[in-house]
Amino acid sequence: MGSSLEDVKMLLSIKRIRYGLTILVALTTTAALVILFSPFKYDQISYNVHLPPLAPSTFHWPYMVGTDNLGRDVLTRTFYAYILDVSCGLAVVALSGTIGLAIGLASGYLGGVVDGLLMRFMDVLISIPGFMLAIAIASVFGSSLFNAVIAVAIVTIPIYARLARGVVLSTKENLFVVAAKEAGLGDSRIIFKHILPHVMPIFITQATMELSNAILYIAALSFIGLGAQEPTPEWGLMMSIGRRYIREAWWPAVFPGAAMFLTVLSFNLIGDGLRDYLDPKKRLTAVRLP
To answer: 3-class secondary structure for the chain?
Structure first.
């Protein structure tokens, strides 16, 4: 318990993690308040559609950040999109991370023909530019948010597989793994009890970094019409529609973009901080000394 508390204190003493968590907590709290107390739904046409969009103004409460081309409240849609995009990012990381981790563990531990076949397949996937491959997969499956999540998950599997394999290759040669084999422990027990604990810290750090990339990929696919469809509140889709009216009304495109920027920034800061925490050479410079 004491050790865990000390680890938490050390993590929070890293400035990047502290700043990232502050931004993330602020966004999540705002999203919860908006969803709970906003008088509008994300698809509710709350203002006369035949009139120009309302500009951000404190005089138009509750339209604090204005309305879009259909008279829908931009603030409400932006924070509904926050929940949706972060959830989609987490789904991508969970799916691709689980599959990639399993492939990396099997490839690194078993070696030989299994390693060769799995890694050659991963090399084929990773040799294709990620976004181009995601576009191709989403185009084949059809334009929907679910298919966009699947496409991005497939694209990012090799990242986790190669990372896990590298850690397994270096870990399985350690004496404690050799001793476990000599003691007659089964392969599954060795993997889950002795190897996996060494993989997880680096895996979690990479997953945190990839979460921001997943959010960007989902938004980009929606931006070009291969992801979320109207009236779904999704940042990429909102910016795609808002850019058509950018000369007359900038706020329907700018506010979703700003929310996405802050969200991605927060996860990147947390990921950078975790990476510094796991690197002994960088830990002293990353941690704020008393």
So the answer is: CHHHHHHHHHHHCEHHHHHHHHHHHHHHHHHHHHHHHCCCCCCCCCCCCCCCCCCCCHHHCCCCCCECCCCCEHHHHHHHHHHHHHHHHHHHHHHHHHHHHHHHHHHHHHCHHHHHHHHHHHHHHHHCCHHHHHHHHHHHHCCCHHHHHHHHHHHHHHHHHHHHHHHHHHHCCCHHHHHHHHCCCCHHHHHHHHHHHHHHHHHHHHHHHHHHHHHHHHHHHHHCCCCCCCCCCCHHHHHHHHHHHCCCCCHHHHHHHHHHHHHHHHHHHHHHHHHHHHCHHHHHHHECCC
Q: How far apart are CA 12 and CA 17, in angstroms?
A: 6
Burial label, 25 (beta-carbon count in 10 A; 0-12, 13-18, 19+): exposed
Q: Is residue 177 within 8 Å of residue 195, measured between CB atoms?
A: yes
Task: Enter the tokens of residue 24.
Answer: 């993330």
Given the candidates 1.20.1250.20, 3.40.50.1970, 1.10.3720.10, 2.40.110.20, the CATH classification of the domain at 72-286 is 1.10.3720.10
Q: Kindly tell me if the per-residue pLDDT of 251 is higher than 50.
A: yes
Query: Does the CA dihedral 86-75-146-124 come out positive or negative?
Result: negative
In degrees, to the nearest 5, what angle opens at C-alpha 229 toward C-alphas 38 and 135?
130
221-249 per-position pLDDT tens digit:
999 999 999 999 999 999 999 998 888 88
What are the boundaries of each domain within the chain? 72-286
Bridge partners (DSSP) of residue 26 are: none
Task: Check whether 28 has a pLDDT greater than 90.
Answer: yes
Measured CA to CA, the distance from residue 170 to residue 227 in angstroms comes to: 39
